[in-house]
Specification:
With 526 residues, this protein is α/β, with parallel strands linked by helices. It is built from 16 helices and 21 strands. The strands form 7 sheets. It has a 9-stranded mixed sheet with strand order 9-6-5-10-1-11-16-4-17, with helices on both faces. The radius of gyration is 23 Å and the shape is globular.
């Protein structure tokens, strides 16, 4: 018999912890999902765990910022962006730490950033730099940055469907908004995460224990890049056309190639099959909660797959996820950047990241609540922002100019459209890079480093022109005000009007908080 130790506390909706566990875990007629669905329908909001866990210190003083944001755009720099060359230069450090680049002044007196971000420097009074990010997981786990999970390891990093994964925060937002969501609610660009690196299949932006139906809706990008670049593959350079280095004006983002309807599938038939798949997903969760077999075993998967796969294989899970894009003309129009004047497109940079960021803005305008743009690996590993070698060449020629153009254009456009004050901008990376440069036959690089690194946030209730936290003289360790990725998530939920300690059910119906730890950071709030 499972016993939950602790006092009998009452949640803010009047339910005790014992009652909540009985509802969620004993398979009664009323499940946790039913409870929260009824609360949402009645306008009382999602179930909160405010009575289960004390509010973070000082949270009462931040109540005016609660719910300030309406939408989010995530710009994710996969591979770990170097803090020294972005937002935390160290001009007084030794040369082997300081590096080749110089700092430049910004619109905020006394604040300097890397010289290859001149546009962002002029807009620094509109953003907040976090220079004291830190956590103990020195691996490429996007999941630790983007989900509430309390710990990660390499097997989780390399398996999107490891059963220990928690849901991506976009999946959580969509789950909590069921019945009120816009379509599509949670869109990710430019292609399925980690799908263009044949060496690895990485976890992170997926539905986790909420199920695959809450995965983002992914777009697709099929053309090759217009720029030929060299990428190191094992023991030699390989020339590839990387679209993150450049694309042509005629290249287009589209609905995922796995989501296109067969000619005989009408929208009415699609509606019916979508409903069936939702019911089957519920049945999968029920089977997983009652079966002694582990999640994902052949017995469960085979039983459900045989019932969910229609004759001819004309419909699959990726098609169900992209249902909204298929049926929404407005959203197809948002992805059609041919409607945008070329001079406007060029402000974002004619790269896959720049054009995806512009498309992300258009998707938000069309009604999406969360849009994620991933600067992802393309071709071999050690691409994107993973600069173990060719560090300065790639940063100066590709990475920093591409980020500078896209991020600065996004900030300006959101302000001109009157959307900046209620749109959260999260420009995140999973960890930083070593203070000391390394030399190899392949050239200069920086290795993985999670003891301290930098992120950027803006809009939607975040402070402007502020620097939160500091690293030491060499950019090696936090000097003061450490910030966890979980603190950023808690603050994001707070600004979206959601208590970060709200409970949601895992695969077994047990209540878990949205974020395993962390607090709302007043320093980040306007």
């Amino acid at each position: 018999m499972l016993r939950i130790l602790g006092s009998r506390r009452t949640l803010c909706d009047g339910l005790s912890r014992r009652e909540m566990l009985r509802i969620g875990g004993l398979g009664g007629a009323l499940t946790l999902a039913d409870l929260w669905r009824r609360q949402a329908a009645s306008g009382t909001g999602v179930a909160s765990a405010a009575g289960e866990r004390s509010q973070p210190a000082g949270a009462g003083a931040t109540s005016a910022s609660f719910g300030r944001a309406k939408r989010i755009i995530l710009l994710y720099l996969y591979g770990a962006a170097a803090q020294h060359e972005l937002y935390d230069p160290k001009p007084d450090a030794p040369a082997e730490i300081r590096g080749k680049f110089n700092p430049i002044a910004t619109a905020v007196p006394g604040v300097q950033i890397g010289e290859h971000l001149p546009r962002l420097a002029r807009l620094a009074d509109r953003v907040t730099f976090i220079r004291s990010m830190t956590h103990p997981y020195n691996i490429h786990s996007a999941a630790y940055t983007l989900t509430g999970v309390d710990r990660v390891d390499i097997p989780m990093e390399l398996d999107p469907y490891d059963n220990r994964h928690w849901p991506f925060f976009g999946s959580v937002l969509e789950y909590l908004a069921r019945g009120r969501e816009s379509f599509p609610f949670n869109v990710a660009l430019p292609f399925l995460f980690s799908s263009r690196c044949p060496e690895f299949d990485r976890g992170g932006p997926y539905g986790g224990f909420l199920g695959r139906r809450f995965n983002p809706v992914w777009t697709e990008f099929e053309p090759e890049g217009s720029s030929v670049v060299k990428r190191w593959r094992g023991n030699a350079d390989q020339e590839i056309r990387d679209p993150f280095a450049g694309i042509s004006p005629d290249d287009r983002l589209t609905v995922s190639r796995d989501a296109r309807l067969a000619p005989e599938i009408t929208l009415d038939r699609l509606d019916r099959r979508r409903s069936l798949l939702e019911q089957l997903e519920d049945e999968r969760r029920r089977l997983e909660s009652t079966s002694r077999l582990p999640r994902g075993t052949a017995a469960i998967d085979s039983a459900l797959a045989s019932r969910s796969r229609p004759a001819g294989g004309t419909y699959d899970r990726f098609q169900e996820m992209a249902y909204s894009l298929i049926t929404s003309q407005a959203l197809r129009d948002a992805l059609d950047l041919g409607r945008v004047p070329i001079e406007h497109r060029e402000r974002y940079g004619m790269t896959l990241f720049g054009q995806s960021t512009l498309a992300g803005l258009r998707l938000l305008e069309a009604g999406a609540t969360l849009v994620s743009v991933f600067w992802d690996e393309y071709g071999p590993a050690n691409s994107a922002w993973d600069t173990h070698f060719d560090h300065y060449e790639r940063l100066s020629q590709e990475l920093l100019p591409g980020l500078d153009m896209a991020l600065s254009a996004l900030i300006v456009d959101l302000q001109e459209r009157g959307m900046f004050d209620d749109t959260l901008i999260l420009c995140l990376t999973e960890h930083g890079r070593t203070p000391k440069l390394t030399e190899s036959a392949r050239g200069t690089g920086r290795e993985h480093w999670s003891d301290v690194y930098s992120n950027l946030v803006a809009g939607g209730g975040f402070a402007r022109g502020r620097v939160v936290g500091a690293s030491d003289r060499n950019g090696a360790f936090v000097e003061h005000d450490p910030v966890s990725p979980k603190d950023v998530l808690c603050t994001m939920y707070h600004l979206m009007g959601i208590d970060p300690h709200t409970m949601i059910p895992d695969r077994l119906g047990r209540p878990l908080p949205l974020v395993s730890e962390g607090r709302v950071l007043e320093q980040l709030l306007a």
